[in-house]
Structure formats: C-alpha cells, structure tokens
Amino acid sequence: MATTTPNFGWAVPTSTDLVKDGAVAIETLGDSIDASLVDLKGGTTGQVLAKATNTDMDFTWVAQDDSNAIQNAIVDAKGDIIAATANDTPARLAVGTNNQVLTADSTTATGLKWATPAAGGGGKLLQVVNATYSTATTVTSTSFTDSGLTASITPTSATSKILVMIQQPYYLYNLIDQTAAGYQIVRGSTNIVTTYNENNYVYVGSGANAAQLRLSPTIITLDSPASTSSLTYKIQWKLKSTANSGTIILQSDSDVASIILMEIGA
Predict the structure, then answer these.
(1) Which residue, 52, 104, 168, 174, is the most exposed by fewest CB within 10 angstroms?
(2) Model pLDDT for residues 102-137, shown as the tens digit of each residue
(3) Could you tell me which residues come within 8 angstroms of residue 68 by beta carbon, excluding any fewer than 6 positions away?
(4) pLDDT (tens digit, 9 = 90+) per residue, 145-199?
(5) Enclosing H/E stretch for 50
(6) pTM, two decimal places
(7) Which domains does the chain have, with CATH numbers?
C-alpha cells in the first residue's frame, strides 16, 4: 500500500507493496514530481525564477528587471535619484547643478527639487561678475550714449537683487562757458538709475572762462530684476549742451573703468 511524502504528498511505495503495486506507486510519484516542477521549465537567458502566488511550487520566469521592482531603465544619467509621484509609483529625478541641494517642494511631481541653498538667510552673496574697459570714448551728444563699459550676469533666483558698482574716469570740458554731463545705468533697455535732471548733473565752470573737470566717480545702485535670464548692465552719458565744443571723454588716457555686479540672495 503506497504512502505519501510529508511535505508535498507525493505517493511512494512502501516496503510491503507487491511488485505490481510498487511499480504503480513509483509511476505516480514520478508524475506528481513532474507536475509539481513544471513551472521550472522554460525561461530564457537572463530571466530569473520568481514566485507567482503564495501557493507551494507556483513559480514563473521573469526578466531580471522584475515588473514589480524598480527598473534599471528608470535612471539614465549620473546623479539621477528615485523619488515617487504617487503611491507605489517610482519616478526619476534628474540630478541638479553643482552646489545645489535637494529641497522639498509640493508643487513638483515628485515633491522634490534641486535648488541653490539659501544658507544664512537673506543677503547672502551668491555670485560676483567683474568687467573692465580702458578704451577712450568721446561723447558729444545731448542723448545718452554708451560708454563702452558693460557686464552681464545670470541670477540664480528671481528673488535675488543685483548690486551694481561702477567706477568710471572721465574728462569734461567746454572751451568758453559752463558745461554739465549726466549719466544713466540701464539693464538691457530698462533705465534703473538716471541723472538727467539738471539739479543732479555733474556740473563744472561758470562765466566766460573755459571749464574742465577730471573725475573718477564711484556709482552704486541696487536693482531688483525679478529674472533668472542673462542680464546686461551698462552706463551711458550725455551732455547738457554741446555748445562751445562741450565734450566728455570717458576712460581718457586709457584710464581703466570697472563694473562689478553682485547677486544678493533674498
């Protein structure tokens, strides 16, 4: 009389079975084993065996990237990290730029973003751009004219302010009478500082004598561009009057003018 194995219940012959009964039991045992191990058949190169259900001996062959696991293809570049867009929904978050930090942001798909750190709170100096110019530039116009001094900066945040500092030597003269000159600082085509009001002009000379003045003023202003695009700043000059050969020579004798742009974190 055949008995069964303790774990899978396969029928096996006993020592008291007749030859005929033993042969039948062995055949039954073989069929049972064959049926139990049928899931181990098949598969292709690179696949792995995985449980299909909680039932004993219920397996299936799957790709090495299991559909229930995070797939290799979800990341495609150095520095990528895995986040989630919803319950059981992994997603790729691309790496940020140098010196950025990972920040929580509920408005993004993953709830995360890379951002420039604001350590130390507002007023942190984020970057500095400096440019110089030493080519003599003559202005003989009552309209604002480029001086040649310019610099560009790309803010890292739209809330940043740009501190503009300019030092520019000039020579102002008139052959007979008094004369005056004014300047303005522009961002792109937007005027941010101007001295075209006569009371604010750089003013020199009086009476019937020739007037001349050499100075190298320092001009400082704080701008709020609300932008993360590249911004170009420059200074322009004009004369109040061109009568009697009124003239401004900027960077006279190749004196060096400079402009410094500082991004200040909000």
Answers:
(1) 104
(2) 889 999 999 999 988 765 456 688 999 999 999 999
(3) none
(4) 999 999 999 999 999 999 999 999 988 887 766 677 889 999 999 999 877 555 4
(5) strand 48-51
(6) 0.54
(7) 3-62 (no CATH), 72-115 (no CATH), 125-264 (2.60.120.760)
State how far the Cα of 39 lies from the Cα of 43, in Å rounded to an integer: 9
Can you tell me the distance from the alpha carbon of 84 to that of 111, in angstroms, rounded to the nearest whole number? Answer: 8
Tell me the three-class secondary structure of 186-250, residue by residue.
EECCEEEEECCCHHHCEEECCCCCCEEEEECCEEEEEECCCCCCCEEEEEEEEECCCHHHCEEEE
Find out whether 93 and 75 touch, Cβ atoms under 8 Å: no
3 state SS of 58: coil
The kind and range of the H/E element at 104 are strand 101-104
- Nearest CA to 217 out of 142, 141, 147, 154 is that of 147
| Parallel/antiparallel/unpaired status of strands 145-153 and 231-239 | antiparallel
Six token digits for residue 120: 């130390």
As to burial, measured by CB atoms within 10 angstroms (0-12 exposed, 13-18 middle, 19+ buried), residue 213 is middle
What is the percent of the chain with per-residue pLDDT over 70, rounded to a whole number?
Answer: 85
Cβ atoms of residues 8 and 32 within 8 Å: yes
Q: How far apart are CA 177 and CA 192, in angstroms?
A: 31
Report the phi/psi class of residue 41: left, alpha or beta, with left for phi > 0 and alpha for psi in -120 to 50: beta
Q: pLDDT by residue (tens digit) across 1-25?
A: 567 777 777 777 777 766 666 677 7
